[in-house]
Amino acid sequence: MPYLPPGSHLLKGAIDCHVHCAPHLNGRSVNVFEAVRQAAAAGMKAIGIMCNFQNTSGFAALANDELGHLGCHAFGGVIMQPTAGGVTLEVAKAAIGYGYGPGTGARFVSLPTHHTRYIAEREGRGPAFLETTFQVPENNVVPDVVCAIMDLCAERDVVFDCGHVSGREAVALAEEAKKRGVTRIRTHGSRYSTDQIAAIVALGGYVELSFFILTHATQVGLTHVDEEKHKISSASTIQDFTPRIRAAGDRCILSSDAGVFLLPPPVEAFREYLLLVQSEGFSDAELRRMTSTNPAALFGID
């Protein structure tokens, strides 16, 4: 029998909803077809393809057309960075319809990741750059254009992703999204307080915690939004994550956020992450919920 690394069984039926792959500006460990092939070989159910520069629903549709027989479904969406057209209703509409045939459009519409005030300040960006970034103001009033995008996500039953905003902003966005009938809400809680995570969960949102934040890749400047290379210093450990995972409870999602050339390919990075989480006392059943049940429910994957 072939050798199977420890934790391989945890990948069976799993969904990694945060995978980066080529084509891209940065070096990548896999292209979109390799990402699907490797996930299928590990017995995974699906992967979600994300890109900080463009809508990935077309890549996903193409991968499914070519490799759907392998049994691993790919899905994509748009992160509304300036390079993808910015935070506009037109960008969201185009992404949701982008593909070929029913069900091939975006499964998620995300606010910016590395073009938010929160991230730009952590990256040490200058005042001129900060003025161009997205933020929810201190009064927590969600901008009108975001409200319109939320309405579209509710109407089309796709995920509204809060992007890389602060915990305060994520709570405000989740509150507004729930008011507007959005039933699929994703937040990125790797640096949120447990109180903020609990508030998001109470509003029906899912909280994703990704492997990337725990890795050495955070030590290297990467191209996220322009020619400059910036990094966010990270001292996060799995022990930092454990209370956040517990706070998210039944609404926690684990993802690799891998694909950058400095890390193992996404499938291997995901396996290592799940073993790391398991070492904190989480059971196979809990891991299954965080890697299969919850992402399937969030993204509508059968």
Automatic annotation (TrEMBL):
GO terms for molecular function: hydrolase activity. It holds the Pfam family DUF6282. InterPro entries: DUF6282, Metal_Hydrolase. The keyword Transmembrane does not apply. Keywords: Hydrolase. It comes from the Bacteria. Transmembrane segments: none annotated. This is Amidohydrolase family protein. It comes from Falsiroseomonas stagni DSM 19981.
